[in-house]
Amino acid sequence: MKTMIDPGHGGKFPGAVNDRLGLQEKTVALAYSLALRTQLLKAGHAVRMTREDDRHLAEDRGADLAIRVAIANAWVPDLFLSIHCNAAEAINANGIEVWTSPGETASDAAATAIYNSVLAAFPHKNFRKDMSDGNPDKESKFLVLTETRCPAVLIELGFLSNDMEAEWLDTDKTITEYVEALAMGIELWGSTIG
Predict the structure, then answer these.
(1) Which of 22, 39, 74, 158 has the largest count of CB atoms under 10 Å?
(2) Is-above-0.90 flag for pTM?
(3) pLDDT 10s digits, 38-63
(4) How many helices (H) and strands (E) does the chain have?
(5) Tell me, what's the pLDDT at 194?
(6) Rounded CA gap, 23 and 17, in Å?
């Protein structure tokens, strides 16, 4: 199975920031992505990443996203997984979100498998979902979800703007358990596609 991991942001695009804890989305996303790559390689996946260090791929944010899509489409993976952290003005906002593009697509089954696996690992966490179409993923026209020519899922690991959740995300224990859950969800979904 071919999996493309997309660590969100990078370089001059830090993404969500928690100044109190000194955490940036680009760094957290990369740490989780590198750990997930190791886990998937152990499981026998072919894995590529849109970035492997702290860099932006283009000077403009829109072009940066387009390059991520182009990298994925050039390789044609079985799954594209974009890893992010959330933020909100309300410092008590918290929770995990799994996103796909709008409508019924091949991404829905992958998103549901990942969602269910992460939920099983962290049943005490808040899961922000949209069940209006029968599955828990939220939907948006994010470029990396709409323009990739393969099933594409974006996960918001949690809210960096929430100190408690940010501290939780920034532990080795959480990284290990989270990455194992993501890998399990990908594996379970992969077993259904042959």
Answers:
(1) 158
(2) yes
(3) 999 999 999 999 999 999 999 999 99
(4) 6, 8
(5) 66
(6) 6
CA distance 9 to 107: 22
> Are the CB atoms for 101 and 139 separated by under 8 Å?
yes
Q: From CA 101, how far away is CA 139, in angstroms rounded?
A: 5
Q: At what angle do helices 172-193 and 107-121 cross, to 10 degrees?
A: 140
Give the type of residue at 89: E
Smallest CA-to-CA distance from 68 within 60, 79, 78, 57 is with: 57
Helices (H), 48-171: 61-75, 107-121, 143-146, 163-169
CA-CA distance, 100 to 85, in Å (whole number)? 16
Q: 114-161, pLDDT tens digit by residue? A: 999 999 999 999 999 999 888 999 999 999 999 999 999 999 999 999
Tens digit of each residue's pLDDT (9 = 90 or more) over 2-33: 999 999 999 999 999 999 999 999 999 999 99
Distances (CA, A) of 85 to 29, 35, 78, 149: 7, 16, 23, 24
Average model confidence (pLDDT) across the chain: 96
Question: Are 153 and 81 contacting, i.e. CB atoms less than 8 angstroms apart?
Answer: yes
CB 87 within 8 A of CB 28: no
